[in-house]
Structure of DUF4220 domain-containing protein:
Amino acid sequence: MGQMHLAPFNNEFFPIWGIILLIVYGSVDSISSFTLGDNELWKKQALEYYFQFNSVCWLVISYWKQTDHIVLVTLLSFATLCKASERVLASQMSSKRGLVRKTKPVADFMKFEHQLSENPDPINNTGYKYVINWEYKHEKEFVKGILSEEVVTIESVWKCSGSLLNNDGDPDSKSKDTCLSFVLCNLLCSCFAGFPLPEYSQPQDKTWRFVKDGLLREGDSAEKPFRVIELELAFLYDIFYTKSALIFDTVIIRLIVVVLILVSDCYLAVVILGDYSETREILQILLFVISNWGKVIFLSNYVGRPFLQRSKLYETIVKFVCSIPRPKPWGRKLCQYSLLKSFNYKPSFLHNVFFWATFADHPGRKYKESSPVEVSKAVKAAVSRLDKGQ
């Protein structure tokens, strides 16, 4: 950026290059942070973006009358305002203060959730009004223990009679379990924010029955608790380390930004360069649509808006999205360490050179890791089996 300011010559593409560099500086992929400590430094990131944005603005103003591509510069400028700040906003949402602000409505509502129903049924999740999706206007009602019919809950998902979520359309409850994992992730985030767990704010019998007779019900496959928990942890990982949660909350703004960038890319490629190339923005949106976050958005809208339950086109799209297989978050494999096999283990010279060349953490002597082993169904069944609640 500084080289363009100090260049002894003028180039009408300098403002365009500066804006693109700022977009890249704001992270073009989905990663928002690499450690939990990075999320607490969101103000530092914001200050860095502020200085970089001022530098780009000065570059644009300097070349405003010299460039013939004012349309492109204008489109990219608006897109940059949103795109370059995504990483900062995602880190802010994942910081301790951001988690408190995001999960406080959930924590407030969970204080009154047990008062809204009697005789809960953990098998059909009747009486479990754990919220999935809501609007800002409903947060004031949560404090008073009021639940609007517009709010999508676990109970409403299991009660939905649409062809996507009934027994014929979702016989193994995988789609419904995705929403359940998202709810449990929100409750876990409220715990990270310092709010008490639900079992401390409502009768423990209700929470215990939800786990014992719902997740770990006898007769069900042992895959269900593992599937629900691994999706819950995948959501949690995305909240702390990626921008998926930000896109989930600002999906309309994100689509507008993508349209602006696509239009400007087409203008740059066709009008200026004379050809066309694909952009990563399309791929990012497609990956988000088929992700678990996209499934939650589609399914919550499907439950909360009854007219969508009569739309064959919408049901076909959602069914296609839900049928796309996703890689397992942890591969359903466990790494092992055997003391007997690793005793007196001495890494070879080439092994040491590899770690030195790649700057990876060296495992050291006597720390030879065995090959990962896939968790068998028998192990899953044994872990899922309860003996007097333990």
About this structure: Confidence is low (pLDDT under 50) at residues 274-278.
